[in-house]
Design a protein that fits this description.
This protein has 301 residues and is mainly beta. The chain is built from four helices and 21 strands. Its main location: membrane.
């Protein structure tokens, strides 16, 4: 019995890593919303950032990153491929994402602890903590700044506050009132995602695999790992390390497109951000290799 279960897992993982199957299925269907990156460049990271978990940009060439074990902001120059500054803001923790809001920086942990670093680039930044209703069971991994509504968008990896297992929810934190809105700003229906992959690699590797081992939980198709906004279009990009997907939502929250990516360079996608020039980047933890990276991707849109 154990041998049969192991065989099913191997088959499922093999089909999950076959982008040709998925690309052919999507391209054969003119109504498909699935698109694929057309080009990428990879920036390998130093060992200090092997556990990189979130990125946000200061300029077209300089970003700030965090890793999920230490309360440190890492300033990283992409063309130079090196850390140019390190700034400690707190002790050890499970830090998952960060967002720049003008002169302030916000960092969030997996259990939903929100840290505000006021005037973060100054010699004497002020660090405050802000309570949210999340706990470890929500497993927060994504956060981004929505400048139009002057709010933070926060995405749980697991279920939302209402424990609905059929959707992935995104919540808003109002930066004017510094209050959290318990009603989701956006909800992504998991069956809407799976419907775009009927008959292809995602169907085979996720849905059929889960059924084979007796797990009907569609929460395993898409789990929010990071989130960012395209300031030019207002679209929301939600990354899932699981199955290598980015869901693109309109400003109204309607699923517009899905980016599917695969390859050895996408080791463990945990961060996503746009540079001011509009280029899109994904950061990857080092996984078993121990070498993290940041990838610039382009896609048809």
């Amino acid at each position: 019995m154990i041998r049969n279960a192991t065989l099913l897992i191997i088959i499922a993982l093999a089909s999950c890593n076959n982008p040709i199957v998925a690309e052919k299925a999507a391209n054969d269907d003119p109504t498909s919303k699935v698109i694929f990156p057309t080009k990428n460049s990879v920036h390998e990271l130093p060992p200090e950032l092997s556990e990189i978990s979130g990125i946000t940009f200061l300029s077209d060439t300089v970003l700030v990153a965090i890793q999920d074990e230490e309360g440190i902001l890492y300033y990283y120059n992409l063309p130079q491929n090196k850390i140019i500054k390190k700034q400690t803001f707190a002790g050890a923790g499970d830090y998952e994402d960060l967002a720049r809001v003008g002169k302030d920086m916000y960092v969030i942990t997996s259990e939903g602890k929100l840290t505000q670093i006021k005037n973060f680039e100054s010699t004497n930044p002020v660090v405050n903590t802000v309570a949210t209703p999340f706990t470890k069971k929500n497993d927060i991994e994504g956060m981004a700044y929505d400048s139009k509504n002057h709010r933070l968008l926060i995405a749980p990896k697991e279920h939302g506050l209402d424990e609905n297992k059929t959707t992935k929810q995104i919540y808003g934190f109002d930066l004017k009132t510094m209050k959290f809105n318990p009603e989701p700003a956006f909800s992504i229906r998991l069956d809407d995602i799976s419907a775009q992959f009927e008959g292809d690699a995602l169907e085979e590797s996720s849905k059929k695999f889960l059924k084979a081992i007796g797990n009907q939980n569609m929460n395993k198709v898409f789990r929010s790992s990071a989130i960012t906004l395209n300031e030019k279009t207002g679209e929301i990009y939600v990354l899932s390390s699981l199955n290598g997907l980015i869901i693109i939502l309109t400003p109204q929250g309607v699923m517009n497109q899905i980016i599917q990516f695969s390859g050895v360079e996408y080791k463990q996608p945990e961060g996503i951000a746009f540079a001011p020039n509009g280029k899109l980047y994904i950061s990857n933890e080092g996984s078993k290799s121990g070498i993290g990276n940041i990838i610039e991707i382009t896609h048809e849109h």
